[in-house]
Design a protein that fits this description.
Length: 247
């Protein structure tokens, strides 16, 4: 039996785990849910409150994206993402998980949630049970309100998150300034994968955007301007290159 990855398909932490599992050649199926509905699937699986959660072929529950990457290192077929001789890879991963991830998510939601058509597109992308997509469409105002309240999505929060995203991008830019190919040197590690995946909601790399995000027509100009500005930074260009070459 293949492993099962419980997700919110468009969640960037889920993208991080999915990327690592695919890269490691792990046989798995994705069990996607909309936000809030995901709690039921997580509870049934005996996981925590957040996605992603991996249920391995032998029934073990790995309930955090970083732990899923470590599991891939231990069980997969690819070079390790967090090699023992490069502790900086895991340190940077933790930093991005803690700061960049929530900030990029808040910025993405802040700009994209108001679009009714964009919301409908998210649901139409599939990957979640049909009944969830149908009821999500009907209950849109409630779902949007719950997401906004749960994640404190408002203009002040978005402004604070922009500062956090800029700080993460500056840190990545500073690391790359000596000409190194990857954040920890010449090897692709968890730091690179995590930065690219968690920045995806504000960088919109093709592989992520076309599969999970509303189309550009349903992205407000303010959001396009943000994406263009971030893409033009050294860190933004790096995130897009990592996607193009490794995803
Ligand atoms: N530290 C966790 C964070 C994952 C996370 O924040 N997941 C969000 C989706 S992007 C979630 O499940 N949110 C639901 C909730 O917090 O109630 C990880 O790396 O797996």
């Amino acid at each position: 039996m293949p492993a099962r990855l419980v997700t919110i398909p468009f969640s960037h932490y889920c993208e991080k785990a999915r990327w690592a599992l695919e890269r490691a050649g792990v046989d798995f199926v994705e069990d996607g849910h909309l936000p809030i509905y995901s709690y039921l699937a997580l509870r049934r699986a005996g996981a925590g409150r957040t996605v992603p959660a991996l249920i391995t072929a032998d029934g073990a529950v790995v309930a955090d994206s970083t732990d899923i990457l470590r599991w891939c290192d231990a069980h997969g077929r690819a070079a390790p993402l967090a090699p023992a001789d490069l502790p900086a890879a895991a340190e940077l991963e933790d930093d991005f998980d803690l700061h960049l991830g929530p900030a990029a998510r808040r910025l993405g939601y802040f700009h994209l949630l108001p679009s009714k058509r964009g919301f409908a597109e998210l649901l139409d992308r599939g990957g979640v049970p049909g009944w969830q997509a149908r009821s999500g469409r009907l209950a849109r105002p409630v779902v949007v309100r719950l997401i906004k309240r749960g994640l404190r999505i408002d203009a002040a929060g978005a402004a604070r998150s922009r500062v956090v995203v800029d700080a993460a991008f500056a840190k990545v830019g500073a690391l790359l300034a000596d000409g190194r190919r990857y954040l920890c040197g010449d090897r692709f590690t968890a730091a690179d994968l995590t930065f690219a995946a968690l920045a995806a909601p504000v960088l919109m790399p093709d592989a992520y955007a076309t599969a999970y995000m509303p189309s550009p027509a349903n992205q407000p100009p303010s959001f396009r301007a943000l994406v263009d500005e971030l893409r033009a930074t050294p860190a933004g260009a790096f995130g897009l290159r990592v996607y193009a070459e490794h995803r």
